[in-house]
Design brief:
Elements lengths: L5 E7 L2 E10 L2 E4 L1 H8 L2 E3 L2 E4 L2 E3 L4 H4 L8 E2 H8 L3 E4 L4 E4 L3 H10 L6 E3 L5 E3 L17
């Protein structure tokens, strides 16, 4: 990649990985070797491929705006996969969301995904430990 390539934190499917990336004009360009090594996706002539799955890329120029050596645009990558993206280039962190189809099937089950949080005493509790019980979840956001 050209320019200064630094570590960029990316949250994907609940796991945090560190990828090599440049931030150019507000766009995050992930190094193609880092995309494969950390996320399992590879850019091939037929499109974005992971294991046996290949997703055709209609606008390859949007995916690699500065050429493949410069890296894959994270916004175009998430759009090609149909996954929402939250990104803060200045803080060098981004999160890839779950694809809409997967979210829809999860919502249809009416079962919340498992997660773990500490209580006020620091003891960790998992939602799955409460299966079969009535649970009240209260979420708060300062915005």
């Amino acid at each position: 990649m050209s320019g200064s390539t630094d570590s960029f934190r990316l949250i994907d499917d609940g796991r945090q990985v560190s990828v090599a990336a440049d931030v150019l004009d507000g766009r995050v360009l992930i190094a193609t070797d880092s995309l494969k090594r950390e996320l399992g996706w590879e850019l091939k002539p037929e499109g974005l491929c992971k294991d046996e799955i290949c997703i055709p890329v209609r606008d390859r120029k949007a995916l690699v705006p500065k050429g493949e050596d410069a890296g894959v645009d994270l916004g175009a990558f998430s759009a090609a996969l149909g996954r929402p993206l939250a990104v803060e280039p200045d803080a060098r962190i981004a999160a890839l969301g779950t694809p809409a189809g997967e979210r829809a099937s999860q919502l249809a089950t009416l079962e919340a995904p498992d997660f773990e949080l500490p209580d006020l005493n620091g003891q960790h509790h998992r939602l799955s430990d409460q299966r079969g019980k009535k649970v009240l979840l209260i979420a708060y956001a300062s915005w």
